Amino acid sequence: MNWDDTTDTDATAERLVGASADGEDQAVEAALRPKDLGEFIGQEKVREQLDLVLRAARARGATADHVLLSGAPGLGKTTLSMIIAAEMEAPIRITSGPAIQHAGDLAAILSSLQEGEVLFLDEIHRMSRPAEEMLYMAMEDFRVDVIVGKGPGATAIPLELPPFTLVGATTRAGLLPPPLRDRFGFTAHMEFYGPTELERVIHRSAGLLDVGIDTAGAAEIAGRSRGTPRIANRLLRRVRDYAQVKADGLITQEIAAAALAVYEVDARGLDRLDRGVLEALLKLFGGGPVGLSTLAVAVGEERETVEEVAEPFLVREGLLARTPRGRVATPAAWAHLGLTPPRSQGSGNGQQDLFGT
Questions:
Q1: What is the pLDDT of residues 4-26, one digit of tens each?
Q2: DSSP state of 150
Q3: Given this model, what pLDDT does residue 305 score?
Q4: For domain 272-353, which CATH number applies: 1.10.10.10, 3.40.190.10, 3.40.190.150, 1.10.472.90?
Q5: Is the alpha carbon torsion for 294, 349, 281, 73 positive or negative?
Q6: Residues marked as catalytic
Q7: From the annotation, which residues make up the binding site for ATP?
Q8: Which parts of the sequence belong to the AAA+ ATPase domain (predicted)?
Q9: What pTM does this model have?
């Protein structure tokens, strides 16, 4: 069960198929997280490479190299950071980029680390620039310069740090400056999960939650989980509730499909917001092209919500395309909603906002 903690917008936290973790998710995840690499499902290449890094460090009696994990929310970055600490038999300190807005915030954390401790820095790309520059020296030389005083009389006092392992996690690796990326000894990109891997995740979670589920039921949930273990576990819990109230507690394909219909998650993993965006694009604008602002107004959502919450999955599924002229629906979008595209797609109302992006 592999997931991490990332919150981009309030809207994502409210969605059943949102990849961010709220309080309930975090509590359940703590119980479901694997404790070592052998239990971790999926991400085979990353697991193999990371296992070599950790085993070599243990053989040398040294701290592990700094690790950078990138990928979408919910794929296992936080879980892997905890596994790294467990494999190295070291304590772990958890913080996030948004929580470090001043160099002094980072200096306070670094100066309190124990030798060999793992520092997990989530959303590392959102750290302030002064703290980021301090981190360069800490990662490379295990030293920071603490500035005492202000103005011409300010002095820098060097502070030696014990060797530690930094595990950075980011959902937007492109925002990391090259000097920071280059200081990580091992970098890994977390991929979305396939249906078979998600079925294994669901079966494992069902066992830990003492939920009865058959193969077809697990496959039904996996197919709607958007390639993300966190979403798979969240859907499993909601289907479990339905099965306990409406059936005998066993999750079958029929029960899973009926439960997710209640929660408005369709067979492809789209929810109300996703379908609302597609329906507006197809029915109101003839499939586009249409500008993002116009599309957002049509679905009654903020521009940022449509762009950051709904669009990434629709684009990844090949249902929507971003073009210089605006958003355009693909033939797969027409087929998914059971609609017939016009002879000349984009000749409708979408022409009124061709160049809005």
A1: 443 343 444 466 776 565 656 66
A2: S
A3: 87
A4: 1.10.10.10
A5: negative
A6: 77-78, 122, 171, 230
A7: 32-33, 74, 77-79, 140-142, 183, 193, 230
A8: 63-196
A9: 0.80
